[in-house]
Write a structure and sequence with these properties.
- This protein is 26% helix and 24% strand.
- By secondary structure, the protein is of the alpha+beta class.
- A five-stranded antiparallel beta sheet has the order 2-3-1-5-4.
- Strand 2 and strand 3 form a beta hairpin.
Length: 133
């Protein structure tokens, strides 16, 4: 069972959506993801003042609906004018082998003069790592 009593089959129907605009409403979110299958639950996560935190979750009636949304990401998902990331929601208590290996990092609030090369140089010099572009 997953978090909240979800079975593994139910967990495969749930998607994480990151990078939402702060202005994206629950209705816009629902309408967008309904094109891939029947949505049984959806939520845009908000802070205590009701402003979107920039991510949400969408659950489909069938695994096929979730698969359709994931497969469509090759075309790019754009909601409310913003490109968003769509992937399976992995419960926090999931076994390590169930978790997707993610080597991406979001960097926000950068100066306009920041380039990919300056970011790469910064991380390689300060964190003893190799950055791939």
């Amino acid at each position: 069972m997953g978090r909240g009593g979800e079975s593994k089959e139910d967990a495969l129907k749930k998607l994480f959506v990151g990078g939402l605009s702060r202005d994206t409403s629950d209705d816009q979110f629902f309408q967008y993801f309904s094109q891939f299958g029947t949505v049984t639950d959806h939520i845009v996560i908000k802070d205590h003042s009701g402003v979107s935190k920039g991510f949400g979750f969408c659950t489909y009636e069938t695994e096929e609906g979730a698969d359709n949304a994931i497969k469509s990401k090759s075309d790019g998902h754009v909601i409310d004018g913003k490109s968003v990331e769509v992937k399976r929601a992995i419960p926090r208590d999931a076994d390590p082998e169930q978790r997707e290996k993610n080597n991406k990092m979001f960097l926000g609030g950068l100066l306009r003069s920041t380039t990919a090369e300056t970011v790469k140089q910064y991380f390689e010099e300060n964190f003893n790592c190799a950055v791939e572009s």
